[in-house]
Design a protein that fits this description.
It is a single chain. This protein is mostly helical. It has helices spanning about 5, 10-20, 25-30, 45-55, 60-75, 75-100, 110-115, 120-155, 175-190, 190-220, 235-245, 265-295, 295-300, 305-315, 320-350, 370-385, 395-415, 430-445, 450-475, 475-480. The chain is about 70% helix and about 0% strand. The radius of gyration is 23 Å and the shape is globular. The termini are close together. About 55% of the residues are buried. InterPro entries: AA/rel_permease1.
Length: about 475
């Protein structure tokens, strides 16, 4: 073991510092996936991984956020969608490089472990557990709300509030949210291939519904709606882009499937970048079509702006049921992909010893971390059924942006510390592009509310306490020193 690896000190603060910032060797990270009972089954290809990305990105965002964006930017919301995509693309390129170079489950957590050290990896892993967990619970609650919207649009009745809302919202128990979490948990336990097939079907359905909207919109298109293209100028466009940005979040979930990809060196870059490109094209076409048949005021004044556009702009009132169904399918695939990502990150942390290794056991038949998945499913179902989420959902935004920053830094650091490491995909113009990814993330983080930062810091303090009293001493870097880089 080299002096650079240990920090050159055998005691005192220097030794502690070298230990908590020690990195995992990339070769050892890959080798750990081959341990009996701890390696995930390779079962998905580029198409399925791309569908994972599209499944995670296209959710309620395009069905809802377009209204808020149109009110802010006017018809120039089309440009806002492009800017939001550009803000994401630099981080997407960095994810693609690291995912192809380190084909190990864990996403930003694993990449940080290989580049910035154990403490930083723990922080981002703990952050991602919260981000993904709260996101799944919140989306599951949204799924319950969309069930009622679909039932009302299609059949004229709804589930009683008592079994479709949390206690804080006037109900007793959010049964639809529990139901969807239970179904997704079952799918994830059964196998990644089965989950990927189900997601592929759902992605196909929601893209067909968006194509339906685009075709109807362009058949009834009114160019005069674009006459006052940017009523609030550049400020309106950039402000809308910062809102719309969060409709693109989800491509990072693709990287959590690194270990289960049939050909990670090729499939992961294609899936990460491909899913972002596909979603951007759909977002821009939908935004242009919506403005072409409805005013920004019509879109912004409705909780279902696309349905409102078809009803008021194209005179198709029956389309509300179709779009409500599309939103329901879209949300289901988001729950699937985000919960999949959370279980893989948690699995990687357990396998590395930072959390109980017993939870990193892979089911001998299904090839999935079944025990861990069921446990996470139960916790998320309880959260979705009973706990008011409210402002805590904003933690998803700050957690995602924090992960983007560390992944971009990881690319820069690994280029310097491991210049000869095989990189099947390389970010162009590094460190310029990763640097732009960092700047875009920082720019968006600065506008988050102060109380979001407070909750984020509190969560990290709790995580640091767990690391100090458990993770540090049980880490494979302590129990298996050969794991060090």
């Amino acid at each position: 073991m080299s002096t650079a690896s240990t920090g050159g000190s055998t005691n005192g603060t220097g030794d502690v510092r070298s230990r908590i910032f020690a990195v995992r060797d990339v070769a050892d990270l890959v080798a750990s996936t081959e341990h009996e009972g701890e390696g995930l089954k390779k079962s998905v290809g580029a198409g399925q991984l791309t569908a994972f990305g599209v499944g995670a990105i296209i959710g309620t965002g395009i069905f809802v956020v377009i209204g808020e964006g149109a009110l802010t930017a006017g018809p120039a919301v089309v440009i806002s969608f492009v800017l939001a995509a550009v803000a994401c693309v630099f981080s997407a390129l960095s994810y693609a490089e690291l995912a192809s170079s380190i084909p190990v489950s864990g996403s930003a957590y694993t990449y940080s472990y290989a580049t910035l050290g154990e403490l930083v990896a723990w922080i981002i892993g703990w952050d991602l557990i919260l981000e993904y967990g709260v996101s799944v619970a919140a989306v599951a609650v949204g799924w319950g709300g969309n069930v009622n919207e679909f039932l009302q649009s299609a059949f004229g009745w709804q589930l009683p509030d008592a079994i479709s809302m949390s206690p804080s919202d006037g109900g007793v128990f959010n049964l639809p949210a529990v139901f969807i979490v239970a179904v997704i948990t079952f799918l994830l336990v059964r196998g990644t291939r089965e989950s990927a097939r189900a997601n592929l079907i759902m992605v196909g359905i929601k893209l067909l519904i968006l194509v339906f909207f685009i075709v109807i919109a362009f058949l009834n298109f009114n160019p005069s709606h674009f006459d006052d293209f940017s009523p609030k100028g550049v400020d309106g466009i950039t402000t809308a882009a910062s809102v719309i940005f969060f409709a693109f979040i989800g491509f990072d979930a693709v990287s959590t499937g690194s270990e289960e990809a049939n050909n990670p060196k090729r499939d992961l870059p294609l899936a990460i970048i491909g899913s972002l490109v596909i979603c951007t094209i759909f977002y821009v076409l939908v935004a242009a079509g919506a403005i072409g048949i409805a005013s920004p005021q019509t879109l912004g004044g409705s909780d279902a702006p696309l349905a409102a556009a078809l009803r008021d702009g194209a005179g198709i009132s029956w389309a509300a049921g179709i779009l409500a169904f599309g939103a329901l399918v879209a949300i289901t695939s988001v729950v699937l992909v985000i919960m999949y990502g959370q279980t893989r990150i948690f699995f990687a942390m357990c396998r590395d010893g930072l959390l109980p290794r017993g939870l990193a056991t892979v089911h001998p038949r299904y090839g999935t971390p079944a025990r861990l998945t069921i446990g996470m499913g139960v916790l998320i179902a309880i959260l979705a059924a009973l706990v008011p989420l409210g402002e805590i959902v904003k933690l998803v935004n700050i957690g995602t942006l924090f992960a983007f920053i560390l992944v971009n830094i990881g690319v820069i650091v690994l280029r310097r510390t491991r210049p000869d490491m095989p990189r099947p995909y390389r970010v162009p113009l590094s460190p310029v592009f990763p640097g732009l990814g960092i700047l875009f993330a920082l720019y968006l983080m600065k506008d988050l509310p102060f109380d979001t930062w407070v909750r984020f810091v509190v969560w990290l303090v709790v995580g640091l306490a767990i690391y100090v009293f458990y993770g540090y001493s049980h880490s494979r870097l302590r129990t298996e020193p050969s794991a060090r880089g």
